[in-house]
Structures are given as C-alpha cells and as structure tokens.
Amino acid sequence: VDLDTAREELKEFIPHVKNISDTSIRKMAGRDLARFKQFKKQGMAVKFGRFTRKENDQIRKNVEEFLSISGIDSAEKLLFTSRYPEDKETINRLKAKHQFCEKISEGIPRPWRLIYYRARKMFDPNNYKGRYTKEEKEQLKKYQAMHGNDWKKISELMSRSNLSVAMKFSEIKSAINYGPWTKEEIQKLKHAVKEVMRKKLEMEDGSSPSSLEQSNRDLWVDREKLCQHLPWTEIETKVGSRYWRQCKQKWNSILVKKMSKGQTLHRWIKGVQNKITLIKRLYEMKVEDANEVNWEELGDAIGDVPTTYLQVQFYRLKVSFVPSWQKKTFSEIMDFLYQYKLPELEEKL
Which InterPro entries match (predicted)? Predict the structure, then answer.
C-alpha cells in the first residue's frame, strides 16, 4: 500500500492521522491496518486513552503465551532485549519466527505501538523498586547534569525505567512546594496555561495573536477541549515551584470551579433533565470499565461540556445515590442508577 492510500485508509480508524509522520504511517500500515479492519468486522472500534483492566489482562495473557511458544524465559528478555546483549541475536530470531508483533497485540483494538509500550511498562521490573533513596536522588541529579534529558541512558545507569527517572527528576530538580497554592502560584499557572493554549490555537487554527487577544472568552470557554492535552512539563517549567502532576490537578480544579460559575453550565449541574441525560448516555455505552468511557464524545453530545466537569458530576451521582459504590463495578453502578435513580428523576419533570 502506498503512503497516501495508507493514510487515507487509516483515517477511518484514527481521526488525527494527518498529524502522524510518514514513517509512523508506514509502520501502522504494516502492523495495524489489517487488524483495524478485522476489528471493524467484529464491531469493535479502535481505542485510545487509559488501558482497562480487561486489556491489561489480555496483554499479560499474550505475553505469557508468547513466552511459552518461543521458549524465551522471561518477559524482561522479551520486552527489553537490549539489556541482554549476549542473547540479543537469539531473542530477535525467536521473536521474528513466532510473529511477536501479531501475538502481543491479539484481541486488543489499539495501535500496536501503544500495546507494546503498555506491555513494557507492565513488565519492567525497574518500575517496581519502591521509593528513591537520598543517594539515588543525588545520583539522578548528577547523571542528568552529565547526560541532559537522555532518560534512556540514565535509566540504564540507575536500573530504573525511563518514565521513573524522568518523573522523579521533575519532582526533585528544584524546590517543590507541597503546601497550599499561593495566589502568586495560581496566577503563574493560569498565565502558563494561557500561553500554551494560545500557542496551540495559533498552530491548529492559524489564528494570529492579535485576533486571540480580542477574544479571551474564545480562548478560555469555547476552546475548552484544548485543555485535555496540555504540555504539563512545559507548564511546570513556567510555574517553577510545582511539579507537573500538581499543576495538572490544580488546573483541573480551577477549570471545574470556573465552569461552575457559568450560568449555562450552572443550570446543567442543577437541572434534573441533564442528570437524566448523563445517566442515559453512560448506560447506553454498555461499557464494563470507566476507562472505556469516551468522555470527550460524551461532553460534545451533552453540549460542549469539559471532560473533567463530566467526571466530577458522575462522581457526585454515584457517591450520593449508589449504596456501597466502592464495592461495585462501573457497569453495576450504571445499572443501579438507571434502574432506581433514573425513574425517580424522571418523576420530577
């Protein structure tokens, strides 16, 4: 399949395919396109976002079965072959012989690359080493000064995963405040988010800075969906005194509070009809796990509502009305809300 044809065919399954590099398109055409078409025949849509428990179990099953048929004696050797240079040639030969790419992704309607990365995260023993000691933190600072942000190199030196060393350095590289946010910090956070959102708008919409200056409302309200994929490490750098996860959590709380003050959204929260709509929409999805809910689509369907906002409202519904909700699965919670709370709400109309 030529590049243009592959991109066009993948567009059916991956809406943002135009932003994917030519190299990645070629790889996806070989590894994913046939799989995606097969999943479509089975009525299964290609998924992104967090992996569900069911998908994690399938990955474990796929890895265990591949180890069994290939004779490779550990998941670490299979997924981190470079750590075993003396066995590398043999392992790669066995992976090719037993079709590693196809086997590892069986039964999971996601791009192969995402499945592979998820498997590496799940089976990397360096992800389960516990807290960093003071000595390790000092080592990490020293290695970062020597190698910059080459987390792969640093992870090898420290026997920790790439993600682990990158995230830990993010926490310790400067004086981090763990107490209540000050007014100055909140202002820095808002300014940082505004800057990256403005930059994103300019890139995606071709808007000029002057046109964006004229309409802050467009930037903050009508473009709310742009808050879903912000560059948090960049925002962390701009704020200075907080690490990226704190910035993300604080911004989400600001967003929910800010949107709650809007008259239209305020009516949505309090309105019985909209609680009914939320319950019905979630119930109709027939998903087994909250991670399978496409909150972005749900927000658009209900009326351009931010995903964080929807998730907060769902949390309030289950906590307020579902007995022992902590012990119930997502589908059990939805069954209860649909069967018992929905009729009660409809009677109020």
Answer: Homeodomain-like_sf, SANT/Myb, TTF1-like
Among left, alpha and beta (phi > 0; psi -120 to 50; other), residue 323 is beta
The C-alpha atoms of residue 195 and residue 235 are separated, in whole angstroms, by 9
Q: Would you tell me how many other CB atoms lie within 10 Å of the CB of residue 256?
A: 16
Q: Give the list of residues 6+ apart from residue 116 with CB closer than 8 angstroms, or none.
A: 79, 104, 105
Q: How far is CA 106 from the centre of its chain?
A: 21
Q: Which domains does the chain have, with CATH numbers?
A: 3-125 (no CATH), 129-172 (1.10.10), 183-261 (no CATH), 264-347 (no CATH)
Q: Is the dihedral of CA 299, 305, 308, 314 positive or negative?
A: negative
143 in Cβ contact with 150 (< 8 Å) = no
87-108 exposure pattern, b = at least 16 Cβ within 10 A, e = fewer:
eeeebeebbeeeebbeebbeeb
All residue ranges of the chain with pLDDT < 70 are 1, 174-176, 200-229, 256-271, 300-306, 349
Tokens encoding 24:
């990645």
Q: Which of 127, 38, 13, 54 is nearest to 288 (CA)?
A: 54
Report the phi/psi class of residue 159: left, alpha or beta, with left for phi > 0 and alpha for psi in -120 to 50.
left
- Rounded to 10 degrees, the C-alpha dihedral 18/21/22/27 comes to -110
Question: What is the predicted pLDDT for the residue at 303?
Answer: 62
Q: How far is Cα 82 from Cα 91, in angstroms, rounded to an integer?
A: 10
How do residues 14-27 score in pLDDT, each as one tens digit?
A: 877 777 778 888 88
Distance of CA 99 to the CA centre of its chain: 28
Distance between CA 251 and CA 227 in Å, rounded?
A: 9
Question: What torsion do the CA atoms of 266, 267, 268, 273 make, to the nearest 10 degrees?
Answer: 160
User: Which residue, chain included where needed, has tokens 């290609």?
Assistant: 46
Name residue, tokens 């000029």.
208
